[in-house]
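Everyone, describe these structure tokens:
***
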Amino acid sequence: MESTPQHNNKLEKKVHTLTHRPLFMFALFSSASMTVLGGTVVATSIPAIEHHFIYIPHIDVLSKLILTIPALFVMIFSPISGILLDKFGRIKFLIPAMFLWSIGGTLAIAWDNIYWILFTRVIFGIATAFVMTSASALIADYYTGEDRQMALGLQGFATACGSAIFMCFGGVLAMYDWHYSFYVYSGGIILAFLAIFTLFEPRHIKKQNLSTQTKQAFSITPFLPTYFFAFMTMVAYYTSPTQIPHFLTHNLGENTVFVGISISASALAYGFASLLYPKIRKLLSIKAIYVIGFILMSGGFLLIFYLHNIFSVSLGLLFVGSGGGMIIVNNSSCILAKVAKEHIAKAMGILSSVSFFAQFISPILSQPFVRYYGIVNLFGIVACLLFAMSLFALVQSRYN
């Protein structure tokens, strides 16, 4: 029996009402924000972890892998999760992944062994891949048009605010013991239960599972420039949580609380830039947002390169966060505007994969440079790289 247009309209109105309820939106955007909290929560503990395991060879790299090794497994599993989510649905993967995310993140407190801690981060990374892809796909499923632009902005805002709050919280806990920062991940259990009672499987996923019609093949080609921008943005952006804590503690002599506050400045700027994205998009083209975003990030790192005090670092990170927030939401918006519904999770899974691979490789690229040329000069190189990206975005004909 086919549903009537009147029945469909009633259903759409009901779905619209449900998806715009505050508790529903809190559950959805909190799920999405969990993924970014993965690295930033323990960023302030990295100098203490490095000091604790100072006798371990190459601990300067291994300690930073605590932040970034989850990204390697997000890179591997995000495309896989995208295929599974498009075929079988979102919720049945999201909820178990949220529990695994929380358990994997908290397990690090149980071991005083850097290699076992890195193993827990592997589990954590696999869970993150499914949480991130599921949450991003659900946002695209639940909202369309201007509502989707609003939702993407709110997702960025929720992510950044959560990151800023827990970064400061992690900084305070790290003052007492570096293990304590990992307790923050236990909050994911509460969010998982909230998601169970609030979120629902989108209707079109159920329909397409029953459909025998031939689907349009997925092509990655139209999205390659967007994926490239995402990669370069995250390589530069993750210079902040992996290198700034060391710069502030070792070069400027600041304690972990001020480290957390300074890095949270970037997260807050990221959040407000994301929240304002729908308004920015009405004023600027996609290309202009990329150009301005890269210039802002470049200016932020240039400020840190020239002025060496806590205030200039905080101001520079505000610029970095503002530009990064604009670009990251712009990436999602570009992809969702082009991709067919049946391929949303695949396209977003690849975006997650590219972004997290950039996070993983960021300290691997930057640390050798720091060893030979110093951390301050690294900030100057990153500034030049981002300025070059703004020029590249300017000459890109694909975005108007």
Summary: The radius of gyration is 21 Å. The longest helix spans residues 145-176.
